[in-house]
Fold these 2 entries.
Entry 1:
Amino acid sequence: MKHRMPPEFTVIRDDERCIRCRVCENQCSFKVHNYDEEEDRVLEDNHKCVGCHRCETLCPTKAIKIRRN
Ligand code: SF4
Ligand code: SF4
């Protein structure tokens, strides 16, 4: 989907810290995180993020930071 406005929040994920546990994907009510099997990475749709910081808190390896733009 194309967006004219920049996202209000950006999910910053440290792929070195991420263990692909998918906790972030499972707990986000807004479906921001999506595990990509081919890339073996968790990707994000920043435009869906409301900045609640749940994923940041629940990520077991502290791989996520939510930045307000
Ligand atoms: S919760 Fe953290 S470690 Fe688990 S998949 Fe998400 S970013 Fe990676
Ligand atoms: S901050 Fe909240 S809305 Fe944004 S990705 Fe994390 S859990 Fe989802």
Note: The pocket of iron/sulfur cluster (ligand 2) is lined by residues 11, 28, 30, 32, 49-55, 66 (CB under 6 Å).
Entry 2:
Amino acid sequence: MANKSTDVCSYQRAWTLDNWVRRLLQNPYKIVGEYVKEGQVVMDLGCGPGFFSLAMAKLVGEKGKVISVDIQEEMLQIVKSKSEREGLSSRIILHKAQQEKLGISEMVDFALAFYMVHEVPDKMSFLSEVASRLKPDGRFLIVEPKFHVSKSDFDSTLEVARSMGLEQVSEPKLSLSRAALLKPGSR
Ligand SMILES: C[S@@+](CC[C@H](N)C(=O)[O-])C[C@H]1O[C@@H](n2cnc3c(N)ncnc32)[C@H](O)[C@@H]1O
């Protein structure tokens, strides 16, 4: 799976990722509310225009922190404007990643990769980096769109995740999506 060329969803299509239709179909609070708690440090990988970052910033509260990660500076600037508008900027750290390296040094309680893993060329290196940043009782939710990612491609991603020491906890049911909740293995 490494080095397979992939397209990235451009910032020019950011509006397709944050609108009322999506809010109806994929309420961000319902999707991550079960995992994200007050005071936690969480990571939104491939945050795009911040559909989940903003919701998670409310869920972690004043003492928590969201690390919003993207390779497109323009996406991060959209998150910055929204967080300033909503008075949440002190809880959101913007992090520009490289396509082949996240470069996050912090350990996190929860990581989200929503509709982004299929855009990552080297899934092995990506998943190894995410696994290394999870606290021992941390959780990692991967969600991929059914319309882009076949069951067998999703299963291959989970196989790579397993080889990086992650264990599957559950298979959340989310509309239009394939999803897996993972945790660090016991080795
Ligand atoms: C389809 S969008 C999804 C955005 C957001 N997760 C959501 O659900 O609204 C995918 C995002 O992942 C980002 N992305 C792609 N490859 C990445 C990588 N290797 N590291 C970090 N972000 C990446 C893209 O720039 C884009 O903003």
Note: The longest helix spans residues 73-85.
